[in-house]
Design a protein that fits this description.
63% of the residues lie in helices and 0% in strands. The chain is mainly α. It has one domain.
Length: 193
């Protein structure tokens, strides 16, 4: 996920997952823990966020619904989002090189396209939740998020990844659900490389 926190606008969003994801990603430590599950365990940050967001609104997601979420964005993520991320990361070393004039502008354009690709994933995932999950009456959203995220990791095969550890999943939950007290998320600029 790149720069998700840079645009909290309402552009084409069918519901509240986009806004929630922006706030969650901006929480202290959340971006780093989400990037760790992406880079260290091969998980899709948008689905990891979805697993947490869904837990705040719905009962624990059945494995079939998590599988449907994975399937719904898999091809798009593989063919569009991931190559855009690779291009953005690949362009970064050239930004300061005067022989590559325009590299920074190009990287920013790629970054904007990557953000748009992620927004499409988030909109799809929100529709999957609305279609397949049961609204929660009450209960422990954090416990549901732990269950959802663990099930996602298992279904996605992350548990077989060399870089996988349940500590990665716990860090995501802890950073997203840790009370902020009187503070609000600040420092909303993020440029994970």
């Amino acid at each position: 996920m790149t720069g998700l926190v840079e645009d909290c606008g309402d552009r084409d969003a069918p519901g509240d997952f986009w806004a929630w994801a922006n706030v969650a990603y901006a929480r202290p430590g959340a971006a780093d823990s989400l990037l760790a599950v992406q880079d260290g365990a091969g998980l899709n940050i948008n689905i990891a966020l979805w697993a947490c967001w869904a837990a705040t609104r719905f009962d624990a997601a059945p494995d079939a619904a998590i599988g449907a979420a994975i399937e719904a964005v898999s091809e798009w993520h593989q063919l569009v989002t991931t190559p855009l991320r690779a291009a953005r990361r690949g362009a970064k070393p050239f930004e300061q090189n005067p022989d590559f004039a325009g590299a920074a502008d190009m990287r920013n354009a790629i970054k904007a396209s990557e953000l748009d690709a992620e927004r499409i994933e988030i909109n799809i995932l929100e529709r999957v939740a609305d279609r397949l999950l049961t609204p929660a009456d009450s209960g422990d959203a954090q416990a549901r998020a732990r269950r959802n995220l663990a099930a996602y990791a298992a279904l996605a095969g992350a548990t077989k990844h060399d870089g996988f550890s349940t500590a990665l999943l716990h860090a995501v939950i802890d950073h997203i659900f840790e009370p902020l007290g009187e503070e609000t998320p600040a420092g909303r600029e993020c440029d994970p490389s």
